[in-house]
Amino acid sequence: MNFKEIQDLIKLINKTNLTEFKMKDGEFNISIKKGDEEGGKALVVQQPVMQYPSAQMPMQQAFPAAPATPAAPAAPATPATPAEEAKEDTSKYLEVKSPIVGTFYRSASPENPPYAKVGDKIEKGQVVCIVEAMKLFNEIESEVSGTIVKVMVEDAQPIEYDQVLFLVDPS
């Protein structure tokens, strides 16, 4: 991983609510942490010892952290009605999950219609969305067939690995 890729990774992580990120690729390890227990003012990238011809020291660089965004006030808790509890029973649905971390997009561009929307019948292998990761746009294919009953993610929202994107009724 070169310096430019590390910078892009830091920018991507700063756009999310992640506070810590670790990655290992062969002998290359990287750990990125936003802030600390006292409110945090720096983002530290640590790269363990790698085999370089002229130096064998670990590289550490400090970057200013993105300003903390204030948390939204919590909504008052309201008891769920039996109708809402029945509506939220998702155990009978199959899930289409994200295979990567990135930004979720329902269509290839704002002018294009979404790949899949509520009520659409999808087949296994059909493209249902795009996830942008490190400036690469990855088409996500469904691993299940059925009818989409719910889109779990808003367009252009950051998503995590294995996050549920769609609920699908297999019947």
How do the helices and strands line up, and which of them pair or pack?
Elements: H1 3-14, E1 20-25, E2 28-34, E3 42-47, E4 59-64, H2 82-87, E5 94-97, E6 102-105, E7 121-122, E8 127-133, E9 136-141, E10 146-151, E11 157-159, E12 164-169
Antiparallel strand pairs: 1-2, 2-3, 3-4, 5-12, 6-8, 6-11, 7-10, 8-9, 10-12
* Order of adjacent strands in the largest pleated sheet: 1-2-3-4
CATH homologous superfamily of the largest domain - what is it?
A: RNA polymerase II/Efflux pump adaptor protein, barrel-sandwich hybrid domain
Distance between the termini: 45 Å
CATH class of the largest domain: Mainly Beta
C-alpha geometry: elongated
Strand fraction band? Answer: 35-45%
Q: How does the helix and strand content classify structurally? A: mainly beta
Domain count: the total is 2
What order do the SSEs take from the amino end to the carboxyl end, as H and E? HEEEEHEEEEEEEE
What is the compact description of this entry?
With 171 residues, the chain is mostly beta strands. The chain is built from two helices and twelve strands; from the N terminus they run H-E-E-E-E-H-E-E-E-E-E-E-E-E.
Task: Give an overview of the whole structure.
The chain is built from 2 helices and 12 strands; from the N terminus they run αββββαββββββββ. With 171 residues, the chain is mainly beta. The chain folds into 2 domains: 3-64, no CATH class; 93-169, OB fold (Dihydrolipoamide Acetyltransferase, E2P) (Beta Barrel), CATH 2.40.50.100. The chain has a 4-stranded antiparallel sheet with strand order 1-2-3-4, with helices on one face. Strands 5-12-10-7 form a 4-stranded antiparallel sheet, with no helix packed on it. It starts with a helix and ends with a strand. Residues 37-62 have low confidence and may be disordered.
